[in-house]
Amino acid sequence: MSTPQPPVAQQQPPAPNWQGAPGTSYTSPIPVVRTHLGHAIASEWTKIKSVRSTMWTLCVYVILVIGLGLLFALIAASTEMNLEGESPLGLGMFGLMLGSVCLITLGVLTTASEYGTGMIRTTMTACPSRGRVLIAKSLVYFVLAFTVTLVTTAFVGFVHVAILEGNNAATPTGEEWFKATVGVSLFLSLFGLLSLLVGSLIRHSAGAITIMLGLFLAPLVIAIFMFAESLRDVQEFLLNYSIPSQLGVFYSAELGSAGPSGWDPLWIMLGMVAVAFAAAYGLLEKRDV
Amino acid sequence: MIEAVGLTKRYGAKTAVYNLSFQVRPGAVTGFLGPNGSGKSTTMRMILGLDNPTSGQVTIGGYPYRKLPNAARQVGALLDAKAVHGGRHARNHLLSLAQLSGIPARRVDEVLGVVGLQDVAKKRSKGFSLGMGQRLGIAAALLGDPQVLLFDEPVNGLDPEGILWVRNLMKALAAEGRTVFVSSHLMSEMALTADHLIVIGRGQLLSDMSVKDFISANSADFARVRTPDTEPQQREKLTAALTEAGGQVLPEQDGALRVTGLPLPRISDLAHDADVRLWELSPHQASLEEAYMRMTQGAVDYRSSIDQKAGLQQPLPPGAQPPMPVPGQGQPGWYAPPAPQAPQQGGQPFAPPQGQPTGPYGAPAPAAAPAPGQPQPQPNPYAQAAPQAPAQPAAPATPAPSAPAPAADLTKSEDAR
Hints:
The complex is a heterodimer. By secondary structure, chain A is mostly helical. Chain A has 10 helices and no strands. Residues 1-23 of chain A have low confidence and may be disordered. Among the domains of chain B are: 2-74 and 146-217, Rossmann fold, CATH 3.40.50; 222-284, Alpha-Beta Plaits, CATH 3.30.70. Helices cover 30% and strands 19% of the residues of chain B. Chain B has 13 helices and 13 strands. Chain B has helices at 40-47, 90-100, 106-115, 130-142, 160-175, 187-193, 211-217, 232-244, 264-273, 288-296, 381-384, 391-397, 406-416; strands spanning 2-11, 14-24, 28-33, 55-60, 75-78, 148-152, 179-183, 196-201, 204-210, 222-226, 248-251, 257-260, 280-284. At the A-B interface, helix 1, helix 3 and helix 4 of A face helix 2 and strand 9 of B.
């Protein structure tokens, strides 16, 4: 502990001559612009499209949604299954349920991978307005996830309607179409956005993905094993409000009358995202990077 | 201009930085030194607004970093060469940073050319070597053509060409009137690059002065005196005369004397009076490394020690010498002799380890060869090294003291090209 030499500290060297003449400073010839959210969005778009994980997760997502959708439609068509006047769009749900795991992964990676690699320090040094970075990430991810989901669900929907015409399927109404494409896309993109925000809160890819998978699957799994009579209400709640059940609402496949209906799942998800965003934003501004 | 006032950072019970105040001025390269864990990186992170100080504040050009308008155009930083997403191309990495601060995309190709990475611009940075990663980090720092530059260990992993380039780059940047703040552990580099030094230990300021002042304030200069090798009695005569006059005399391995406490003319006079001829009388200034070691040796948190291999060593056969420790290894205080005594030249022992037979001038005698009659007496591979060990420290010792700053001398040839 003891320093044999007393530190020569704390005293400024008298009139140091190594210092440049007062007022000398460097001015860059590159024009300085005032940065705004648009710059951050352009940057995040470059980032998200320049890593392979984005391409891979989105490819797997599209393959799952379209592949499973086609598979179910072909099975139904070949077995001459009678849909009894149901809308054929509901068959698209299974592919989306599996595929949403990819959206979770992509969402978490968008934020948490920067913490894993240390890139976040480079980013936050280049843009000390941390909130701006989070908003840009959220917007870029949301628009990307929404567009991909919308295109895929619309494609799968058209295929289903075309293939299952002869299976006594009802022709979907305009509202059914809207909910099964735009509604589902909004819901799942918001769910992915929730993953992105959880990734920003947890700052660890594996941890955040685990949490989101738990949120996605645990309510259903737990509910299945709740046999006790006294827990009946809890079981029902978990069943009705689990993410897969809420997804089913967009295909008019409610499990019970007590659960969410119509556009309720979207509002519920929107509320969760809002809370998570507020928490992520607040912590990002406050915490050390 | 970077200005820190009373900067303090605590992580729970651990105080990483305590009451740090300093200024980094434009137009000079300021070196930032300190042992591992002394708070250098924490300080740099606080300058860049990544960590919030517990108390105190640090400003750049009068603003806290996060209040700077378009910070990336005013401050460029290399904190960690590995702070990139390995799956992204070098160019895309820089492009995303350029877009974030509104820098035209052609500037990206420009800085890639500056750091010499244009050929691997479309390669994923995962495959980059440490030196290439370092170059990419420097490119990111230069991207905004900023007025203030911070580099944390910039020459880490660079090849000699890269080290020379970074050294000249730092100087050139400072000469343009920019503020350059560099942390490094390579004292020889710092001696060549930095104009000014800020030294911290255990999170507190130890020193803030120019390199030249730092060296003279933290090291005792000494004179090297050599008497004719052929007449050892002259040597003893001079030693006695110098000691009597109040000087401190220490023998060196090659037979020269290291004298402190007496000015050079006085040594010459004393020798003349004692009727002793001199073959050499030369002044020596300590190297930056030595000065640094003396200053920080009380503030080192993580100190290496000797690998004892307790219970793993086979007992030495009778007559065999224990392995000679490499000088400086695991000996705290190696660089810190009592105040008036001469500082020791890096890695050069004065007194042989206890129990060693000594040669005529105090140098350790070459360890006894394995006893005759025992052809392979040493099964222990570590013991095998014993006979060579004393020769190694002596080899660099001879040329080193003839240079004013041994550490600087190593790299000087690079400059000359």
